Amino acid sequence: MTRKQITVIVIVLAISGYLYSLPVKGLIKPKDAKATEGHVNGSQPSSTVRNVTVEDVSSPAKTAIGAALAARINDLEGQLKNTSGDADKLVIEKQLAKQWDDDNQPAPSAFYYQAIAQKESTFDNWMNAGNHFNEAFKSTQDTAVQPAFIENAIGAYKNAVKLKPEDLGAKTGLGIAYVNQTSLGITDPNGGSPMQGIMLLLDVVKQDPNNRNANLNLGLFAMKSGQYEKAVARFKTVIAQKAEVEPYFYLAESYKQLGMKKEAIDAYQKCKEMIPDPIVGQKIDQYIKELKN
Q: Could you point out which of 83, 105, 235, 277 has its C-alpha 20 to 30 Å from the C-alpha of 201?
């Protein structure tokens, strides 16, 4: 397992404690009515989105990666500051985006990919920006910056969709961003509701039933709305394509919420087998022990 994969599961474990305390606003829980998967009541009132810059997210990211890795970033930032001309800046921005990516810091990487896309407006560049902003949203619990990540993700994916209207990856990313924004009490000022997001994801799996990203996120949204049976089905679809830690962990959590202890323990055990990290393994052992008691 790579360092990035271990980082993903550490994040998953960190967010598990509040996964259910932050339901996506507007998602109907089964007890509320004839809920369909991820059905919504409508959009929520929009709140003010704070302006967030690459400088705002770079400082904590440097602390996270340590002085040695930050030194390379500081050097590139100094070069960028002293460079004039879009072409020359673009070269350094690409280096910074990749360096932050290699250091598993999606937030500053996202801003540089956005700057690259603004200079070279290609589908791949806008997808890179959108994907990293969505990842940055998922990777942080800082509610002060999350709205900006989602707003920028939506903007990036909209540009990608304009360039390739039928691309399933772009539709998936935009759908995820539309639903995520409702958990923060914001709405896209130019249109885009949580229902629209769910419909985009459902359209993706209609065209590609095994689509990993769409199924994984439909499963997560089902969990947040208390629809654990549907969540289980989504995660099993993902795992059938490729057994990975993240869907197995969410599958275990869903089984736990359904009171299916044996199934939950089995899924947690699968997670542990995939993670060569003793600290994460100890955390999973704790979850299993709680289920056995």
A: 105
pLDDT tens for 174-185 read 999 999 887 777
Indicate if 182 and 286 belong to the same structural domain: no
Cα atoms found within 13 Å of the Cα of residue 193, Cβ hemisphere only: 13
The tally of domains found in the chain comes to 2
* pLDDT tens, position by position, 229-264: 999 999 999 999 999 989 999 999 999 999 999 999
For residues 265 and 251, what is the distance between their CA atoms, to the nearest angstrom? 10
**Helices assigned H by DSSP within 183-225:** 194-207, 212-224
Which residues lie closer than 8 Å to 67 by C-beta, 6 or more apart?
A: none
Cβ-based burial of 72 (10 A; exposed 0-12, middle 13-18, buried ≥19): middle
Does residue 288 lie within any of the structural domains? yes
Q: How far is CA 93 from the centre of its chain?
A: 23
Residue 162 is encoded by which pair of tokens? Answer: 């304009």
